[in-house]
């Protein structure tokens, strides 16, 4: 995501509040917020969900009264967010699909 100039820190803070809301959300395996070191107005969200239905359910969940909603995130963006969907094949940080290391 690209924030309006000088708003990268604010965007990252809002997305970290979103991450707090996702603690314990069913099927959320990873939700990481990172900020570009060369361009702090670039903020990345890396999400891993057990399945697409769970990710969609999280997006459709009503915002909590103490957490940011999508409109608050979108207001900080200078361009629409870029999304890349991938299939996780393995690596470090998640157990294998069959539960084996």
Instruction: Write down the secondary-structure element order.
Output: HEEHH
Terminal-residue CA separation? 33 Å
User: What's the CATH architecture of the domain at 8-61?
Assistant: 2-Layer Sandwich
> What are the low-pLDDT stretches, counting only 5+ consecutive residues below 50?
none
Query: Mean pLDDT across all residues, rounded?
Result: 87
Count the strands? 2
Brief account:
The chain is an alpha+beta fold and 101 residues long. 30% of the residues lie in helices and 15% in strands. The model has no long low-confidence stretch (mean pLDDT 87).
Characterization of the model:
It is a single chain. With 101 residues, this protein is α+β, with helices and mostly antiparallel strands. It has a domain at 8-61: Alpha-Beta Plaits. The chain contains three helices and two strands, in the order αββαα. The chain has helices spanning 8-22, 52-60, 70-75; strands at residues 28-35, 43-49. Strand 1 and strand 2 (43-49) form a beta hairpin. It is globular and about 40 Å long. The N and C termini lie far apart (33 Å).
């Amino acid at each position: 995501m690209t924030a309006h100039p000088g708003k990268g820190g604010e965007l990252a803070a809002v997305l970290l509040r979103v991450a707090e809301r996702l603690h314990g959300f069913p099927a959320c395996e990873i939700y990481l917020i990172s900020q570009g070191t060369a361009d702090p107005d670039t903020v990345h969200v890396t999400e891993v969900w057990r399945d697409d239905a769970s990710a969609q359910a999280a997006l459709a969940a009503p915002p909590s009264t103490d957490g940011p909603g999508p409109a608050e995130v979108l207001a900080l963006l200078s361009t629409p967010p870029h999304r890349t969907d991938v299939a996780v094949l393995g690596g470090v940080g998640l157990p294998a699909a069959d539960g084996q290391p």
